[in-house]
Specification:
With about 350 residues, this protein is an all-alpha fold. It has 2 domains: about 5-150, no CATH class; about 155-338, no CATH class. It is built from 18 helices and 2 strands. A two-stranded antiparallel ribbon has the order 1-2. Helix 12 packs across helix 18 and helix 13 crosses helix 17. The longest helix has 22 residues, at about 260-280. The chain starts with a helix and ends with a helix. The mean pLDDT is about 95.
């Protein structure tokens, strides 16, 4: 099977994991994620047109050779080409589910990597592989894992290191201080500021992993992100990743054991907390909100869009809405796409 999506991946796999220049060198290549989201939304016929406009900003993929000492190369973005070669070889030799189950626990603590884009690219690749196991899709999983490893970035604290019984994700987030700092620059660089406030690590340490429940965790995090997208215009892009990053756990968790899922959820909680601390503001959505977008209208709007973040948010919002009504998520996606 080699369809529109596989051909899109083949086109993109000659490009680097990142692009940009100067202070914005390090922007993540969203092409594969947006293409997969368009396919999931039923817009496979729009993928080529989207990429025609998108690939102009990308640069060529760097060369690389498989890594022998992974610990030494972890978090070294100059080894991105080597990380791609490493995971491409591994996925050519072993079942992709086995590689995934081994890689995710090893990388979980650094899930912030590239503002969650390594994690997100992995999740989109996993969903595509569930539909069909093809060489192009395995290669895309390799690129996602490579971005995660090359940009591996830990945050302060150790989720559940000193748990307070019954303290769930919402209670942890309530204890995280909001930091009044400039919001300029790349998201993952800006979030380093949370290390300056010891209250952040203390709140993360206090999470009780036994309170974790997938649906509640995803919905709680997504609600924070959606409210921010609607109510904090200057922070929309950062807060989009709270929604998509949390919702992606639904895609990958079925392939992990319970311990790995809880560990990953704890580190995703760190990321949600850090984004909320730096980019969030108290948001009170008005009592008479704009009408909830009709799902099919939102789907059509995403299909016409060239906004990679908007496409991905719309797909995640519609996926969550299909599980249980999520009007705020639909409204957030429409806000970004208009």
């Amino acid at each position: 099977m080699h369809d529109t999506f596989d051909r899109a991946l083949d086109r993109l796999h000659g490009t680097d994991l990142e692009f940009g220049s100067g202070s914005l060198d390090g922007l993540s290549n969203h092409g594969p994620m947006a293409a997969e989201a368009l396919v999931t939304l039923g817009h496979a016929d729009r993928v080529d047109a989207f990429l025609d406009a998108y690939v102009e900003r990308l640069r060529a993929r760097p060369p690389g050779t498989p890594i022998t000492d992974r610990a030494a190369a972890l978090g070294d973005v100059t080894r991105a080409g080597d990380w791609i070669a490493t995971y491409e070889r591994e996925l050519a030799e072993r079942p992709w589910r086995d590689v995934l189950r081994e890689a995710v626990p090893a990388l979980s603590a650094g899930v912030l990597a590239s503002a969650l884009h390594g994690w997100l690219r992995v999740a989109h690749a996993v969903r595509s592989l569930e539909r069909a196991d093809t060489p192009s899709r395995r290669r895309e999983l390799a690129h996602g894992l490579a971005l995660w490893a090359a940009r591996y970035q830990e945050l302060p604290g150790d989720p559940g290191a000193r748990p307070a019984p019954g303290r769930d994700a919402a209670a942890v987030l309530a204890r995280v201080p909001r930091l009044d700092v400039p919001r300029r620059g790349l998201i993952f660089d800006r979030l380093k500021v949370v290390a300056t406030d010891p209250r952040f690590a203390a709140a993360i340490d206090s999470w009780d992993p036994s309170t974790f429940e997938l649906d509640g965790f995803v919905r709680g995090a997504a609600a924070i992100g959606a409210a921010g997208v609607i109510g904090v215009p200057g922070s929309r892009i950062a807060l989009v990743h709270v929604v998509t990053g949390a919702s992606a756990l639904r895609i990958v968790a079925p392939h992990l054991d319970d311990a790995a899922t809880r560990r990953l959820a704890g580190h995703l909680l760190q990321v949600v907390a850090s984004v909320d601390a730096v980019y969030g503001e108290p948001v009170a959505l008005d009592d008479a909100p704009a009408p909830e977008p009709e799902p099919e209208a939102l789907r059509a709007l995403a299909g016409r869009s060239r906004d990679d973040h908007g496409i991905k948010l719309a797909e995640a919002a519609l996926r969550e809405h299909a599980i249980a009504p999520a009007p705020t998520l639909l409204r957030a996606a429409a806000t970004l796409l208009r």
